[in-house]
Amino acid sequence: MLSSIGIPGLILILIIALVIFGPSKLPEIGRAFGRTLTEFKSAAKDLTKDDDEKEKAPEEALKRIN
Predict the structure, then answer these.
(1) Which residues contact 18 (CB under 8 A, 6 or more apart)?
(2) Is residue 30 classed exposed, middle or buried when 0-12, 13-18 and 19+ CB atoms within 10 A define those classes?
(3) 40-62: string of b/e by CB count within 10 Å (b at 16+)?
(4) Which of 12, 25, 37, 42 could form a disulfide with 21 if both were Cys (CB 3.0 to 4.6 A apart)?
(5) CA end-to-end span of the chain
(6) Distance (Å, rounded) from C-alpha 38 to C-alpha 31?
(7) pLDDT tens, residue by residue, 18-60
(8) Other CB atoms within 10 A of residue 3 CB
(9) What is the pLDDT of residue 12?
């Protein structure tokens, strides 16, 4: 999806954001966006970790029985 934007499109988006939010707000918005991505990434990692643990649990139970 983002691969079709290209460099000119990204520059246009940055200019529009600069006009709308102003130069003082852009760093704050960038930090908030970065924190959001970090939280999303850690939540996704926790979900996949939980799924891996659920898959391993029956295997470990079978090993204990045998």
Answers:
(1) 26
(2) exposed
(3) eeeeeeeeeeeeeeeeeeeeeee
(4) 25
(5) 50
(6) 10
(7) 999 888 888 898 899 999 999 999 988 888 876 666 666 666 6
(8) 5
(9) 93
Tokens representing 34 are 């970065």
Q: What's the sign of the alpha-carbon dihedral 56, 58, 61, 65? A: negative
User: φ, ψ for residue 24 (rounded to 5)?
Assistant: -80, -25
Contact 21, 29 (CB under 8 A): yes
Q: Which two tokens stand for residue 1?
A: 């999806």
Residue that the structure tokens 């939980």 belong to:
50
